[in-house]
Amino acid sequence: MLDIHWLNTFVTLAKLEHFGKTAIKLHMTQPNVSLHIKQLEKSTHVKLIERNPFRLTQAGARLLQSAQNTLMELQTCQADLNAINDLSQGTLTLAASDIISRLLLISPFQSFKKEYPGIDLSLLNTTSAQAADLVKSAKADLGFVIAQKESQPLHFTELHQVKWCALGNGLKEEPTLILLGHDTRTRDLIDLALPSLQLPSYRVMEVGSVDAQIDWAEAGFGVAIVPAFSLHPKLNLQTTITPLPDFPTTSLGYIVRQNQVLSRAIKQLLHWVAEEIQRSQHRA
């Protein structure tokens, strides 16, 4: 019988390709990592890895695929059982981008902690695309995303239609556009919509977050194109805000696995998030 802890160690080692890093990741000693692999090889009667240089054998590659599927199924099973039992203790893991978490989740999280003090909220700060992968693999129970494309085994529910605006001293000739990097869905959407601005030419300044876009725009370095819900009440009143009605709207919402059982706690959290979105619309 294959031990689930051996499989988890093997999958982590296959990803990191380093015994020391695997030990740190799993909060183990390096000798224990080696012991798990030896026990796994002894149990399967095959060599799974070559050590110098590190690589998976053909048998190791085959086991990796099965082990990943097995661990994901176990995580999904445990999450559904927790939901059915209306878990009052444990961990609820969410994945969301920086701007969604900071503007829309802090107040709902505060309400959640008061209502469910026995449940630890764990937030994975990531991009929308990475959030989808985390939910799909059952490493997150819930993901908040922008522009989710329907894809099995995920189900997307819209919470808000996102509109866009330009923040800065107007879209003058040859402006500097302050945009997110290319590794985000937001940037992909903006690139597709930029021709609607009919700018003959422009420069691009790339930053790592929507907050950084706003800060640099307020400092006079260019025009930031951002979701309207990201504009907070403390903006510099002298900064020009220009709605972009020709930019296509997109959806902000949450994703779960298809057929996933939602606990009472998750449903209540989603209710508080929906209320926070309504409040943000009134503030805007």
What does the model show?
The chain has nine helices and twelve strands. Helix 1 crosses helix 4 (58-84), helix 2 (19-26) crosses helix 3 (30-44) and helix 5 (98-115) crosses helix 9. It starts with a helix and ends with a helix. Strand 8, helix 7 and strand 9 (203-207) form a beta-alpha-beta unit. The longest helix is centred in the N-terminal third of the chain and has 27 residues, at 58-84. The model has no long low-confidence stretch (mean pLDDT 85). The protein is α/β, with parallel strands linked by helices.
Main traits of this protein?
284 residues, alpha/beta, 12 strands, 9 helices, single chain, five-stranded mixed sheet
